[in-house]
Amino acid sequence: MDLKFAPADADAIPLYLLEVEAFDGWLARQSAPAKAWVMQSGFAATLGEALTVPATDGSMLCAIAGYGTAAARKRARFGLAGAAAKLPRGTYKLVSDLAGAQLETEALGWLLGQYIFDRYAEAKAPAAQLVAPEGVDAARIEAIAKGEALTRDLINTPANDMGPVALEAAASALAQAHGAQFHVIRGEALLDENFPLIHTVGRASDQAPRLIDMRWGEIGPKLTLVGKGVCFDTGGLNLKPGASMALMKKDMGGAATVMGLAEMIMALGLKVQLRVLIPAVENAVSSNAFRPGDILTSRQGLTVEINNTDAEGRLVLADALSFGAEDTPDLMISMATLTGAARVAVGPDLAPYFSDDAGFVNALEAGAIHAQDPVWQLPFWEPYEAMIEPGIADLDNAPSGGFAGCITAALFLRRFAGETNYAHFDVYGWNPAAKPARPKGGVGMAARALLEALPVMLKL
After folding, report:
1. Where is the Cytosol aminopeptidase domain (predicted)?
2. Cα(304)–Cα(415) distance, rounded to whole angstroms?
3. 120-174, pLDDT tens digit by residue?
């Protein structure tokens, strides 16, 4: 869905965004009837609070939204979006002292809060619309919101309508919209072109496995995004229990996130040579499914012992990363809903990432703060390398013991990234409960932080 600002409207309703410490001063400047109305309502400018104030003729004089205290805003993002959800139908014009990144973030939060997934059931459109605040780049904010909406739509769509075929179609539509080159290797051709791990993981499905390859831009540094596109993960022969399988439509969240980020990059015209690689598979159960104990040979030539067929994401990413590294990009980033260990470590709000590049880390951390898109660095801890070396093969796809699962997965992936500047994000891709600007369901993580950081990282 399109998330856009309302057209400029001379009759737009003033919406005052008020911090707790500024509330009394604002109230003192109001007319006696307005002051009485606000006082009787009990409005206290707490974060996300909203109130409409009537004029003497019964029309709406203005609306007020609480922006809380600095301490409250540290514990919650997108305070304006929380208030917007409580406002009645109308077009509003923001009146506040916000400026710069803070104003942009709150304006973006309003748009993100308008998102509705309505593919399968009619949903009521958000009532409150916002005119783009003065001082913000409305086109940029709308482009970011569009990329986030794409990510959410892809994750929210169930696997019966978002299998490898549909994911390819969505990527093709994205490429066509921006004039990007598009190429796909499918089925048995994966073996012919040396992508054995992608083929092996996806061969049990009725929908053939495939590698999606999109290129855009002819100048600037080379940026390669690799997204895990496991459209549904049964766990394979190491079948997941029902409770663990319930959200596996989101196991292509890495692919959805890199596609959303690619939408932002292309729409905003960043001067990069962008490449997007998505191994799109379904990890299904059939007579030809790969087995625990199998030893597979990767595109790079490294052998992998399969100790758990439910650790399939790192396998398909391995071949894609090897392929991406052959093009010697200046920066290669993988995003994947890879491990439950990452969720246990940092919960659903933070995007854990791995990088050994101090410049990348500094730029990303600053970008995350600017974009209100939090990330958390975890280490490529080399003493754990021995945990992914089983002896019978070069690598183990699922080390026993359960320790440091997200770190050992990241170390596994790094083996296939060659000499490139490589970063890995172990995203969750799902909001378990609705929050301002982030309804329950699929969500992009770290894409906005990366978008802010890329100009610094790549010296654009």
Report:
1. 308-315
2. 12
3. 998 877 789 999 999 999 999 999 999 999 999 999 999 999 999 999 999 999 9
pLDDT at 402: 83
For residues 166 and 310, membership in a common domain is answered with yes
- What the block records as the tokens of 179 is 């004039």
The confidence score (pLDDT) of residue 187 equals: 98
β-strand partners of 377:
353
Distance separating alpha carbons of residues 77 and 82, to the nearest angstrom: 9
- Domain co-membership, 186 together with 54: no
Of the residues 136, 168, 198, which one is the last residue of a structural domain?
136
- C-alpha distances in Å from residue 107, one per residue of 3, 95, 367: 11, 12, 17
Give strand pairing partners of 296: 304
Cα Rg of the chain (Å, integer): 24
Considering only CA atoms, which of 186, 138, 190, 195 is closest in space to residue 165?
186
| Catalytic residue chosen out of the listed positions 86, 140, 240, 435 | 240
Q: Which of 123, 130, 416, 444 is nearest to 256 (CA)?
A: 444
pLDDT tens digits, 248-272: 999 999 999 999 999 999 999 999 9
Alpha-carbon distance of 22 to 5, in angstroms, equals 27
pLDDT of residue 236: 98
- The total number of residues shown for the chain amounts to 460
List the structure tokens of 6. 């309302």
Tell me how far apart the alpha carbons of residues 51 and 125 are, in angstroms, rounded to a whole number.
20
Query: Which residues 6+ apart lie within 8 Å of 404 measured at CB?
Result: 341, 381, 384, 387
What are the distances in angstroms from CA 279 to CA 193, 205, 390?
A: 14, 14, 26
240 is catalytic: yes
What pLDDT was estimated at residue 122?
Answer: 85
User: Does 344 share its domain with 382?
Assistant: yes
- Asked if residues 197 and 227 have their Cβ atoms less than 8 Å apart, the reply is no
Q: What residues contact residue 428 under an 8 Å CB cut-off, 6+ apart?
A: 253, 337, 342, 343, 348, 351, 445
Positions of the chain with pLDDT under 70:
none
415 is catalytic: no
* Residue 4 within a domain: no
**Containing domain of residue 383, as a range?**
142-457
Same domain, 166 and 47: no
Taking the C-alpha atoms of residue 335 and residue 314, their distance in angstroms, rounded to an integer, is 11
d(CA 319, CA 209): 13
Domain-embedded: residue 8:
no
Side-chain half-sphere of 78: how many Cα atoms within 13 Å? 22
Residue 1 pLDDT:
72
